[in-house]
Amino acid sequence: MMPFESRFDAVFEMVSAATKEAIEDQQINCYWLKDVHAAGRITDDIVKGIEDTTFCIADLTGNNPNVMWETGYAMALDKPTILIGQSVDSIPFDLKVHRILPYQLDRLNDLSHILGESIRQTVARDETASLKSMPANLFWLGHDLARSIRLAMFESEDLVELRRNIIFSLHHLTQVRLQASDIRKLLLSALADVKDGTKLAEATRKELVIKIAKAKNALGEKIASLQPGFQGFATLSEEEGFLRESE
After folding, report:
1. Which runs of consecutive H residues, i.e. helices, occur in 23-134?
2. Which of 12, 78, 89, 162 is most enclosed, with most CB atoms within 10 A?
3. Could you confirm whether domain 135-226 is CATH 2.40.30?
4. Span 179-208, mean pLDDT?
5. Considering the entire predicted model, what is its pTM?
């Protein structure tokens, strides 16, 4: 979000490049509505763009009224919003309490480095908050992935139920708002294998199991990376304690 002026073109290109580099393993669509020329109201595109986005970057240079409104709307929707600006001293008090990344037009590379780190930290924080706020979706995501694997291994003739569980997995993955395009691609590929209702060849069935298992393992690794201190296996002392408790 920035003023529709040509002097910001280089800033947008830097922001776009820094964003893609910061989370290079994900599918990122960084766009500026100045470049949208389809029929319709600009304000509708602005509102929809903010509502659909994962996070926002707002350039507060010049206290542009449109950018100020867009920034306020994004914050009202609890969209993580990174603030940048050339003249931070003139920014209104209500926004000064937020962290703002200053930059100069002739030194955009300086901003690129710090912006990249800000993006990585912002996305990680948002993902962690999302996991905590949607435990039911996270539970059912794990459940549906595990059930999909079992169906593919032992009940692959029930394609309707298998397809249903893969679709549910994709739904819950979207709901928890994880940046996990690799997991999504695996599940979409698995869905493509079963969507026509044709009986699975043995080679296809085995490949299907591998795809879903990879998605489940990648999900576990992703969640573990967002949870400091996560330990996936019981320690020897824990095992001994559990055994004694079971006696």
Report:
1. 42-52, 65-76, 93-96, 108-133
2. 162
3. no
4. 86
5. 0.61
